[in-house]
Design a protein that fits this description.
By secondary structure, the protein is α/β, with parallel strands linked by helices. 36% of the residues lie in helices and 15% in strands. It contains seven helices and five strands. The protein has a five-stranded parallel β-sheet with strand order 1-2-3-4-5. It is globular and about 45 Å long.
């Protein structure tokens, strides 16, 4: 399930359609989404599956996600793909209802982060500490990309080391593949 809207303005946005006019796409309430996907409930129960909310930034809509959790079976997995660049209250309210957070960290270095996303990463750092303070590091997969023209292997190593100091252990290290659009 992809949400529209994102606080970031990444130079190489991997999901630019989520930034556009949400009016082009079907809008869902938590109830409508549940009715449409509960047909797969037996599959979810048999495979330990569920729903991954991405976007855009799903953590901008905590009420939707909390209500969806109320509707579905507790054994459904609820995962979030997030930048964590949202208010701490949003993350605090979601931690009790989600199973896994897939965090696209970009880089822990404030200057690199700002150059790439256009925003400060202070909310990201605060939310990482909040997750650590709640002992949820093992429920996170932290994505640390190598971004051409923005980060180096040394930058990525430094980000990983900083995250390991907070107790995070699961990482997805990859390289952005930048493709020029043909006009």
């Amino acid at each position: 399930m992809a949400f529209h809207g994102c606080p970031l303005h990444c130079r190489y946005c991997l999901n630019p359609q989520s930034l556009g006019d949400g009016g082009k796409f079907k809008e869902y309430t938590p109830e409508l989404l549940y009715r449409e996907i509960r047909i797969d409930e037996l599959y979810f129960l048999a495979t330990n599956g569920g729903v991954t909310f991405g976007g855009g930034e799903p953590c901008l809509r905590p009420d939707f996600i909390r209500r969806f959790r109320e509707l579905c079976d507790e054994s459904w997995q609820i995962n979030l793909e997030t930048s964590l660049n949202v208010p701490m209250d949003n993350i605090a309210s979601l931690l009790p209802v989600v199973n896994t957070l897939i965090i696209d960290i970009k880089d822990m270095n404030s200057e690199i982060y700002r150059n790439y996303t256009g925003l400060d990463n202070s909310l990201v750092l605060s939310n990482l500490r909040l997750i650590a303070d709640n002992g949820r590091q093992s429920d996170c997969i932290v994505r640390i990309p190598l971004i051409p023209e923005f980060t180096t292997d040394a930058d990525r190593d430094a980000s990983r080391a900083a995250l390991e100091q907070l107790g995070f252990t699961r990482f997805d290290l990859f390289t952005y593949q930048i493709r020029k659009q043909c006009l």
